[in-house]
Amino acid sequence: MASIIAESTTQTPRAPRPQRPNYAKLHAKPLPLETYPLPAFLPQNPLSILRIAYALISSYISNSSSHPAPHTHRAYYSAATRSVHVTDDISVRALWESGFFGKGSLSRSEPEWLEREKKRLGLVRDKAGETSAEITRKRREERREGKRERARLEREELEAQLRKEGKLTATESPLVTEQEHQIAASAGDAASDATFDGRSATIIDPLAAKEAEYAILQNQEHLQLIPYEAFFLSYALGILDVYDPASGQRLGSRDLLKLFRHTSVFPPLPANRAPPVDDPFILNYVVYHHFRSLGWVVRPGVKFSVDLLLYNRGPVFSHAEFAVLVVPDYSSGLWRSDERLQKIATTKKKEEWWWLHAANRVQGQVKKTLVLAYVEVPPPEEAHAASEDIGALLKRYRVKEVIIRRWTANRNR
Amino acid sequence: MADATEDLIRAPLNSTSASPSPLHATQNSTNNASDSDSEAGDSDTAPDYVNFLSTLNLETSTNLQHTSSALPKRGNKDFEPHPTNLQTSSLQRSRDAMTQALSHTRTHAPKVHVRGIYDDKSGLTRVGKVKGQMFRSLGRDISGGGADLYAEEALWGLERGALDVFWPKDAPKAQALDGADATDSDAYEECTGLPMSLQAAYAAYVGGPGGLTSEKYVVYAGLKRAGFVVLRAQGFHGIQRRRLLQSAEDQRFPSPGLWAWLRELIFEENQHQKTKRLAIGPLVKPGLYRNYNSIYDMLRIIPAYTPPSSTSTSHASPAPSSTRPTSTAQKQKLNNEEVPKDYETYHTSYTTTYNIYRASPTFRKSAPGAPDFRVCVISARDTSVPTLAELDSLLDEQPQDPPPPQLQPQTPSASRPDNSARGGGRGGRGAGRGRGNGIGGVYNRLKHGQRNVLLAVVDEGVVSYMRVCEAGFTEERLNERVGPPPARGGKGGGQRGGRGGRGRGRGGRGS
């Protein structure tokens, strides 16, 4: 995919893109936590020790913390969407910019609806920095144009051949109607795309309504966090407080884990039932946490038919290199210790080969590498014993990564 | 993917029709270069018989030995039928070519006519006298110039028309000759009975006493046709394995090590505090942190498998002088396997079926050396995606195959200190600009993995090969890579460097 686009950029001259924001500066922090590095000690400059001392003392006096001050980010759990919503603008920016958590509810990934809307209404003059949605729309438009052109060339070639064989007179051109039909259809597509992206077809005269619009234009967008992202921010980093919208109470880590595990299956489990050892939430969270703790930026990978995508530094810098499928595994020695457990293990669904082939084929097309993240699931009793201690529970699950790539004999001779 | 359609503007469309497209004949030469999908081999498309026929004619007109080295090229495809005479005629030409190719009479050249006798007890085929190049990599020599062929080897020879197999006419006599010193190969050949038809050969060999299954034969024939030397491996018939009833697998997950313990003792919180921190979170307790690495260290709680080469992280065995142990160490480990009492045995097909060697003029079947690839043949209908235990046992059979030195990060000083605890994790120190530095080096090391094996998944005759390797993700800690990598050119991503991208990802340090 990427190389094809690159090909088109090199072949068709295009106006230079407006300068983009400085992503390296914008996304300098890998996690939404502040760090206070000490100045380096320079042996040739003994006075530099004073700078270190100053940094130490000032951080002690000012009582600065790596965690967001004065309070942590707030979010609430939405049962309808089974996601966690962050509405505060500062929190949204902080969570997106440092670590790429969540997704704008009205955007493809980065929450940029407001910016897009302002541009659409002509409220901002400068054209600098297109949003990713705009880039995508343009690219799709170009691609559609290319397809149209290809179809036209093919038809012309065919007509020329038919004329040569005397099956068509020099003037008639029966295939053009089809072409026109196609253009009309794709134009319709483009129009529907535009309204979808614009999201407010009701405004009839934007010029007249501009002033009023400016006053009432509010950010309609919030940041959606997948449960495992929210749990990571809350339990692991301790920078997100998730509230229950019904009671208005803050959910502690244990409550949150219970809520997420119970609602990760459909229909949601009743509150008095213990969740299964291998519910989707805990499996995904274990793998998510594992790769996050190794420094990867982990994003959901549903559009590439996988569970997670691994980015180096983040999606604005480069494409994801690895696509992760989470595979629960019940083959460890623990599941063989008695017959009852063995019986349970045999009832677990085993994935078929074509499922793996299908996922792997997609990765080949999008130039990613498939990683199978096996999660060794502990037996139920063991997991249940540790249900109150989240750390102990997570430590019962073990991860092993295996990379799968297609191999062709012809290319390895 | 819909995104891939753009280069189709220049390239012709794919279709299932095997007839070459007359309309796109002129574009044929240009589109091969723009075939960007490196994953999809050209093995998926149907053969073009017109081109095939031309090579066949060449073959029959000259000597059989001098087959043309160039493979037949495939033509372009027409996407849909249209009422041109050109298409009709080319389609007809292609059909004629196919009929002609299939009706071609295959004969044995007298000089290389090899006869073998099928043994219905062992499933082997005994060849009295070997002739021709084929036997350089086929069969096991017996004294007197003969050879024994395994079922798949005999079937392959038969399919190629290089071997004539006979039913045993006088089995006792043949066996008597078998038991005696079978130097008299002519007498041996007198014991032969009726020639075996191809149908009979398939019936006798596949599922016969030789242990050949259709899956294994399909893989064997496919690899042979691709030019590899394929030899049976130890686990051709599947394998009896032992496994522990109770889990003693904790040793695979290294414990933190002495240094970590000391550090915890002196600098960090006590055990009680730590347990409490883990129990309800947050793992990163509120406070002041000087760098992100210390934060990531606190986050690292999920036990993860480390590939066996990285013994340096385990405190049980002291780190060797080189962080990557040699393959002999691994062999020793396999040989010194001890069998405690609480083991059970089970049969599995997850074991190496064939050893594969690239064709080489110096290959000797008596001393094949280390194989280039090892393949495990799996039936897609009988098995599902392997469990970790199955995969582990398969990988345990494989030798160590760490990433080559040029993929390792180049440290400024040539010798790495012994106590650098994390093997190859410190790419991109900014000093060297080797292939291993930078994120491309990390990707390539991960993709190469440690131990690896090929899985040939056969679904009713259709083979999908997959390379499975253990990825050392725990070895490559991205947060420890110092500073942002160079925005351009730093990808160095070997096989697919310069992946273009949509532009957004590039030049992140523009302003």
UniProtKB/TrEMBL annotation, chain A:
<dbReference type="GO" id="GO:0005737">
    <property type="term" value="C:cytoplasm"/>
</dbReference>
<dbReference type="InterPro" id="IPR006677">
    <property type="entry name" value="tRNA_intron_Endonuc_cat-like"/>
</dbReference>
<dbReference type="InterPro" id="IPR036167">
    <property type="entry name" value="tRNA_intron_Endo_cat-like_sf"/>
</dbReference>
<dbReference type="InterPro" id="IPR016589">
    <property type="entry name" value="tRNA_splic_SEN2"/>
</dbReference>
<dbReference type="InterPro" id="IPR011856">
    <property type="entry name" value="tRNA_endonuc-like_dom_sf"/>
</dbReference>
<dbReference type="GO" id="GO:0000214">
    <property type="term" value="C:tRNA-intron endonuclease complex"/>
</dbReference>
<feature type="domain" description="tRNA intron endonuclease catalytic">
    <location>
        <begin position="281"/>
        <end position="376"/>
    </location>
</feature>
<feature type="region of interest" description="Disordered">
    <location>
        <begin position="127"/>
        <end position="152"/>
    </location>
</feature>
<protein>
    <recommendedName>
        <fullName>tRNA-splicing endonuclease subunit Sen2</fullName>
        <ecNumber>4.6.1.16</ecNumber>
    </recommendedName>
</protein>
<comment type="similarity">
    <text>Belongs to the tRNA-intron endonuclease family.</text>
</comment>
<dbReference type="GO" id="GO:0000213">
    <property type="term" value="F:tRNA-intron lyase activity"/>
</dbReference>
<feature type="active site">
    <location>
        <position position="319"/>
    </location>
</feature>
<dbReference type="Pfam" id="PF01974">
    <property type="entry name" value="tRNA_int_endo"/>
</dbReference>
<feature type="region of interest" description="Disordered">
    <location>
        <begin position="1"/>
        <end position="22"/>
    </location>
</feature>
<comment type="function">
    <text>Constitutes one of the two catalytic subunit of the tRNA-splicing endonuclease complex, a complex responsible for identification and cleavage of the splice sites in pre-tRNA. It cleaves pre-tRNA at the 5'- and 3'-splice sites to release the intron. The products are an intron and two tRNA half-molecules bearing 2',3'-cyclic phosphate and 5'-OH termini. There are no conserved sequences at the splice sites, but the intron is invariably located at the same site in the gene, placing the splice sites an invariant distance from the constant structural features of the tRNA body.</text>
</comment>
<feature type="compositionally biased region" description="Basic and acidic residues">
    <location>
        <begin position="142"/>
        <end position="152"/>
    </location>
</feature>
<keyword id="KW-0819">tRNA processing</keyword>
<dbReference type="GO" id="GO:0003676">
    <property type="term" value="F:nucleic acid binding"/>
</dbReference>
<keyword id="KW-0456">Lyase</keyword>
<dbReference type="InterPro" id="IPR006676">
    <property type="entry name" value="tRNA_splic"/>
</dbReference>
<feature type="active site">
    <location>
        <position position="311"/>
    </location>
</feature>
<feature type="active site">
    <location>
        <position position="368"/>
    </location>
</feature>
TrEMBL record, chain B:
<dbReference type="GO" id="GO:0000379">
    <property type="term" value="P:tRNA-type intron splice site recognition and cleavage"/>
</dbReference>
<dbReference type="GO" id="GO:0000214">
    <property type="term" value="C:tRNA-intron endonuclease complex"/>
</dbReference>
<feature type="region of interest" description="Disordered">
    <location>
        <begin position="395"/>
        <end position="437"/>
    </location>
</feature>
<dbReference type="InterPro" id="IPR024336">
    <property type="entry name" value="tRNA_splic_suSen54_N"/>
</dbReference>
<feature type="compositionally biased region" description="Basic residues">
    <location>
        <begin position="499"/>
        <end position="511"/>
    </location>
</feature>
<dbReference type="InterPro" id="IPR024337">
    <property type="entry name" value="tRNA_splic_suSen54"/>
</dbReference>
<dbReference type="Pfam" id="PF12928">
    <property type="entry name" value="tRNA_int_end_N2"/>
</dbReference>
<feature type="region of interest" description="Disordered">
    <location>
        <begin position="308"/>
        <end position="344"/>
    </location>
</feature>
<feature type="compositionally biased region" description="Gly residues">
    <location>
        <begin position="489"/>
        <end position="498"/>
    </location>
</feature>
<feature type="region of interest" description="Disordered">
    <location>
        <begin position="478"/>
        <end position="511"/>
    </location>
</feature>
<feature type="compositionally biased region" description="Polar residues">
    <location>
        <begin position="13"/>
        <end position="32"/>
    </location>
</feature>
<feature type="compositionally biased region" description="Basic and acidic residues">
    <location>
        <begin position="334"/>
        <end position="344"/>
    </location>
</feature>
<feature type="region of interest" description="Disordered">
    <location>
        <begin position="66"/>
        <end position="106"/>
    </location>
</feature>
<feature type="compositionally biased region" description="Low complexity">
    <location>
        <begin position="308"/>
        <end position="329"/>
    </location>
</feature>
<comment type="similarity">
    <text>Belongs to the SEN54 family.</text>
</comment>
<protein>
    <recommendedName>
        <fullName>tRNA-splicing endonuclease subunit Sen54 N-terminal domain-containing protein</fullName>
    </recommendedName>
</protein>
<feature type="compositionally biased region" description="Gly residues">
    <location>
        <begin position="422"/>
        <end position="437"/>
    </location>
</feature>
<keyword id="KW-0819">tRNA processing</keyword>
<feature type="region of interest" description="Disordered">
    <location>
        <begin position="1"/>
        <end position="48"/>
    </location>
</feature>
<feature type="domain" description="tRNA-splicing endonuclease subunit Sen54 N-terminal">
    <location>
        <begin position="100"/>
        <end position="167"/>
    </location>
</feature>
